[in-house]
Amino acid sequence: MKPSTLGPITNHLIDSLPRQDRASLLADCEVIDLEFGEVITEPGGRILHVHFPLNSFISLIANLSDGEQLEVAMVGSEGMYGMPLILGLDKSPLRALVQGAGPALRLPTIVFGRHLEQSPALQVLLKRYLYVLMHQLSRVAACSHFHQVEARLARWLLMTQDRAHSDQLHLTHEFLAMMLGVRRAGITLAAMALQARRLISYHRGDITVLDRAGLIEASCGCYAADRSLYRRVITDGGAP
After folding, report:
1. Domains along the sequence of the chain with CATH
2. How far apart are CA 93 and CA 9, in angstroms?
3. Phi, psi of 79 (to 5 degrees)
4. CA count, 13 A, side-chain hemisphere, 196
């Protein structure tokens, strides 16, 4: 994790705050570069900093006792890492792994707590985001059980593309298999099927999204449902 320089703010949660609340929060934030593969917190570990990704993103991974792992949520420029703090808890139930390198805003949990106490707007916004994140967690569980690997892979690639802000992704079969909780062979077949439909190109871990609209059509309905809920609850500030 390295210091970075501040570019245009692209974190949607921070951009959604009233101007005074946003300025106050940004004044206490440090801009850092998250590095690919960096572990921010292990399960049960204390959350020392809150992170607002800009052009980076973080995988939240459930670790089982037999060593199996499954990504259950993803946090990019639409969100924040450190949500247990909203509930008054400072330990993470999940592994937080940097999946997309890039800049993020960071501040210590103590400082974040002060802002949370002083800003009703921040409280309301993050409670709404917590609702969205809970929805994402529950939908991943159902999606993993009921939907085909090809549709789930299409959804996951779209989610990654949204947070990477790029059509170019570097994702190995081994990493994709771990994220989706399936065998490597299943990922290979699913990626080949998407490539045969000219939705993506794939070569040695380098994936290029060729047809986003087609990839959305190939994905399960979970992708559209997640985006719709975020827009209603966060962007529009309405009811779920």
Report:
1. 2-135 (2.60.120.10), 148-219 (1.10.10.10)
2. 29
3. -145, -155
4. 7
- pTM for the model stands at 0.90
Higher pLDDT: 177 or 217? It is: 217
pLDDT at position 64 over 70: yes
- Amino acid letter for position 185: A
Q: What mean pLDDT do residues 155-182 have?
A: 88
Give buried/exposed letters for 37-75 (b at 16+ CB in 10 A, else e).
eeebbeeebebebbbbbbbbbbbbbbeeeeeeebbbbbb
Instruction: Supply 194's token pair.
Output: 């998407």
Task: Provide mean pLDDT across the span 48-71.
Answer: 90
DSSP code for 55? S
Query: By C-alpha distance, which of 110, 41, 51, 111 is closest to 75?
Result: 51
Q: Check if the beta carbon of residue 31 is closer than 8 Å to that of residue 6.
A: yes
Q: Mind listing the pLDDT tens digit for each residue in 97-115?
A: 999 999 999 999 999 999 9
Nearest alpha-carbon partner for 144 in 83, 89, 69? 69
User: In whole angstroms, how large is the CA radius of gyration of the chain?
Assistant: 18
For tokens 């170019």, name the residue. Answer: 168
| Strand, helix or coil for residue 208 | strand
The count of C-alpha atoms lying within 13 angstroms of the C-alpha of 235, restricted to the half-sphere facing its C-beta, is 8
Structure tokens at 101: 């390198």
DSSP 43: T
Length of the chain measured in residues:
240
User: What average pLDDT does the segment 120-142 reach?
Assistant: 94
Cite the beta strand spans of 111-222 per DSSP E.
168-170, 200-203, 206-209
